[in-house]
Each structure stands twice: as structure tokens, then as C-alpha cells.
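Summary for the steering committee. One of the milestones for this cycle was to obtain a three-dimensional model of the protein with zinc ion bound, which we needed before selecting residues for the alanine scan. The sequence and ligand used are listed below.
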Amino acid sequence: MLQTARKFKLTFDTLTLSKDIKEELPIYFHMGGNRDMGQRNNSKCAKCLRDFHEVQATGDVLAIVERDYQGHSRRHNCACRTCREDRLRGCSAPYLCLEEAIKMLDCLYEKWDPRIEVNQRTPRLTEEWKQKNTNTIEADDPVLFDPSIHLENRVDGFRIFGEACKPTPAHQIEPLEEEEEETIYIGNSHRLDSDGDNLSVGSIWYNQDDKRNMPVTVPRELASPDAGAAAAIL
Ligand SMILES: [Zn+2]
Ligand SMILES: [Zn+2]
């Protein structure tokens, strides 16, 4: 099975991931880690994190970083509550494990880092539209395109013929403000020259003295009676 997966370049990749999926992914040998991640996998603290702090997933590392460290100091015998709890688990230097956890997360590319929320402005279908789409699928009618590029389900992230994961997340641009409708006139001119070859010119006309008004010349090999208008529309 592994050979088949390799043969067909099975990869896990997506444009953006939800925070939940980022947290579910294993932190050791993380596919979205930079070169420094290699050193992190087997460091003394990484082993302590695995053995005594029960770290497996990226979310486990995040949970360690986000705990309450009030009164914390960089000492083996730090008296803060969190470090005391960690020492009871068997960790000899909780402050070093905390620093290691931060370094692990810092090794992740932006797309895979659960501390970074991207594409918060990604347009999404409303629940009402999702329901309408469900009905239209059943009725075999056209459905409204869902512009969301966010991966919500881990299984949907697997691709065949894929490449190694790309470090940069996709950033969707903000939807444009609704613009006023504008009427654009398309012109078409066509004639045959003295050799009988087609000559076609299209034109785009917005308004009197509008700088955007322009002719559109059609290459001779593409010229035909309606080619000028088609070129202007394109
Ligand atoms: Zn502490
Ligand atoms: Zn530890």
C-alpha cells in the first residue's frame, strides 16, 4: 500500500487548514516543518515532551505553550504552578520543555502553524445557501459555487500526483466592493481587402471622450465576419 501511495505521489496538502486540523496533525516529523524541525525531533526536551508531557499532536504542543505561567522563571526549580505539575509528571526542567515547545511551533511554516489564523475574511456560503445547494443537488439543478478554500475535514486533504507541501498559505483577497453596473458597447467591423483576405476590427466604447474607448485589431489569421466583436468582448 505504501509503495502504491509513493508511486501515485499521494500527499497531504491543501490551500488553508482549519485550526482544528492543524492541531490534529502529529508534531514529530511534521510535514509542514522547516529545516530546523529535523533537529527538534530527537532533542532531549523533545523526548521529555513525548514521554512525560504526552505530546503527540501539534495541538498538544500548543496546549503546553498556552498554559498559565504566572510567576514563571527560567529555573529548574521554578515555583510556578505549571512547572510544579510538570516536575510531578517526571520532567526535570519544565522551563526548557516550554522553550522547546515554542521552538517546535516556530519551525512550522505559516500555513501549518495553529497560532496563525489565515483567511479570516474568506467568503463562505451562508447556511441558507448550503441548504439550497443540497436541495438543488438532489434535484440535479445548478449549485452555487462555494468560494471557501478552507479544509475542514482531514480526509479531504489527501491528493494524488501531489508535490511536497507548500509552505505559504493561500490568501484570498477581500471581495470587491459592489460596483455600479456600467454599459459597455461593443463594435464590429469587417471587410475583404483587394486580395480577398478578411480584415476585422472590433471596438470597445464606454462613453463620449472616455479614455477607455479603444479599437481592438484582430490578427489577420483569425479575422472573420464576427471576429472583431468577439475580440472586443475578450
Ligand atoms: Zn514555571
Ligand atoms: Zn519536560
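Key point for the committee: The beta strands are 11-12, 16-17, 150-151, 158-159, 185-192, 198-205, 214-217.
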